[in-house]
Structure prediction request, 257 residues.
Amino acid sequence: MRKNILVNTVTHCLILAVALSCCMVSGTAVAQKLTIATVMQVPLSTLDGMGLIDRITKERFARIGVDVDIQSIPNIDALEQANAGIYDGDIYRVAGTSETYPNLIQVPGNVNSFDFVAFSMTLTDKDLDIAGKGWESLTPYRVGIREGWVETKKHVTEENTAGVSSITSVPQMFMSLKRKKVDLIIYGRFMGHQMIKELNLKGVHIIEPPLSSKEMFLYIHKRHADLVPKLEQALADMKADGTWQKFIDETLSQYAE
Prediction:
């Protein structure tokens, strides 16, 4: 009887030890699963999780042994919900977002730079006196921006434009441009290319160069602060071994001009 009890105890201990060893990779529990928010669209983030930033984020977390589920949510709610801890972070935001959302930690390492560009419908680059002059050149124009974006909200105001329309829906933003409700809209280069294609819009063009090009960062909720150095190293390793560039080439090559 004592022998059976001893055998069973040893067996249970071995099973537990194996289970624990299988659940640990580089000090992080594999069983841990985080849900990260995104407001990005094709080609940066897609519903099947194969967008550029989706792939970078998943690989980055996988390298530290953490499973991640990327959830596309309405732009206006994204940072508020991540800051409140409803989501474990946000996959792609400008530097300094923590100033407004203090529960979110900016993870070091530029995920991929983002071009904020102006799109025009009825005017040409030659007519628009904003090329190369940055945000301060928007003063004469009615401008449409994506609601909830930190960078555009900071730079595009009623004071430095002829009027600002803050629009939740991206298709609606582009249709506002087509219908001449605004003179310009500010959006991301690659996502803008994709939206023009999806809406089959004719005559819309980008004004070069970008109003600004910003490094973008992963943000995670402060309850996961212990993951920050591991995630920083994971991205550095991806850039060193070519994985990061491979994802860019495979995802953005079709948008090359």
The chain has two domains: 30-113+215-255, 115-213. The first strand starts at residue 24 and ends at 25.
